[in-house]
Amino acid sequence: MIQQKWFIRLVIILGIIAGIVVFLHVPSFVHQFQTKNSINILVWPNVIDSTHLKEFEKESGITVNLSYFEDYEELVVKMSSGSGDYDLIMASDYTLRPLLDEGVLKRFDYSKIPFMKDIYPLIRNLPYDREHAYTVPYSWEVFGIGIDSAAFKNGLPEASWKTLFEGNYPVGMNDDAREIVSIAALYLFGPEKKSLNRDDLQKILALLIEHKKRVVMYTDLRTDYLIISQAAPVVLGISSDFLYSMRKYSAVEFLIPQEGSFAIIDAFMLPAQTKKDDLVYAFLTYIFQPHIVRKYAERYNFFPALQGVVTKDDRYLIEPTESLFSRLNLFSYDIPEKELRDLWITLKS
After folding, report:
1. Left if phi > 0, otherwise alpha if psi is -120 to 50, otherwise beta: which for 203?
2. What is the CB neighbour count within 10 angstroms for residue 182?
3. 3-state secondary structure the chain
4. DSSP-assigned beta bridge partners for residue 235
5. For position 337, what pLDDT does the model report?
6. What pLDDT score was predicted for residue 19?
7. Regions of the chain with pLDDT less than 50
8. pLDDT at site 189
């Protein structure tokens, strides 16, 4: 009888212990399951958000965890350190070379991306991805000059970088060293010059220091606000900002300088560390559906890389034509990071 009681107590104790063990490990089991059925994506904040991803998560059973970065340097640090465990990233064209040099990307299997044929050939075949293996372009934009037409009573100023660098009125600038230095180089040296030496950088610095006297603000936020608030009648910025403002304010205009300008391509890239390629391809197939691209394009005012997505806007360009892209460059100047950083610190000090 006593042995039977001890046996019952032992069974109860073992049952309690087993219950505790199961209870303690359930979260890890759940987490492991969720991790296997989730992807971590690193993107720009103004191209994709979670708004239109619920349908994908519901249909596929794949959880999408979005993280954001604010600038080129942050992206490179996150990727080179391996701290984010990312399965897919979206980055601008000029980040591809540094990321390849760091060895943090791998090739896409384009046989699993049937919609690649529907991306504009001009966008798909740009030389930043020389092997045409590491990127899936999603959006593109153009740098230009925003104008408050109400401030120019005798008509719009010349569509030229002279309007930005040579006027006597306040101007606004974006707050990115690589972009501003490249635009200053285009103004000073023309589109034929493809590399910059130290003497060139000193000339650019001298120009920007003199130009700074008229700059009311360098900002990473929407530079078109400087026009809307009448802080400056001439502002350097990207097309998405001004497309938004042009639809709301008739006085806002956007000029692409006749000397040429810069395009920026935002594309998906595949981290070398991911083991979830199939989940990534499922996500890409969803996010490149024309009606999904249209929703994000209308929300963030970028130009889609996918053909035939948005209707034409008679005040604005939306298609990457040969004529337009013959005047556009990529941010491809090979500028050492230290020299670029030193120049920027000197300008801002």
Report:
1. alpha
2. 22
3. CHHHHHHHHHHHHHHHHHHHHHHHHHHHHHHHHHHHCEEEEEECCCCCCHHHCHHHHHHHCCEEEEEECCCHHHHHHHHHHCCCCCCEEEEEHHHHHHHHHHCCEECCCHHHCHHHHHECHHHHCCCCCCCCCCCEEEEEEEEEEEEEHHHCCCCCCCCCHHHHHCCCCCEEEECCHHHHHHHHHHHHHCCCCCCCCHHHHHHHHHHHHHHHHHEEEEECCCCHHHHHCCCCCEEEEEHHHHHHHHHHCCCEEEECCCCCEEEEEEEEEEECCCCCHHHHHHHHHHHCCHHHHHHHHHHHCCEECECCCCCCECCECCCCCHHHHCCEECCCCCCCHHHHHHHHHHHHC
4. 146, 172
5. 83
6. 57
7. 22-23, 25-34
8. 95
Two tokens, residue 206: 């001298």
Residue 313: per-residue pLDDT: 65
The pLDDT of residue 14 = 60
CATH 3.30.70.1320 fits 142-262+328-348, yes or no: no
How crowded is residue 184: how many other Cβ atoms within 10 Å of its Cβ?
22
Report the predicted TM-score, pTM, of the whole model to 2 decimal places.
Answer: 0.84
Q: What is the pLDDT of residue 96?
A: 92
Which CATH architecture does the domain made up of 37-140+265-325 adopt? 3-Layer(aba) Sandwich (3.40)
d(C-alpha 282, C-alpha 328), whole Å? 33
CATH 3.40.190.10 intervals, the chain: 37-140+265-325, 142-262+328-348
User: Beta 234-238 vs 215-219: how paired, if at all?
Assistant: unpaired
Tokens of 288: 């490149």
315 closest CA partner among 264, 254, 268, 240: 254
Residue with tokens 């519901």: 58
Structure confidence at residue 31 (pLDDT): 40
d(CA 252, CA 233): 9
Residue recorded with tokens 């920026």? 264
Q: Residue 218: what residue type?
A: Y
Q: What is the pLDDT of residue 26?
A: 42
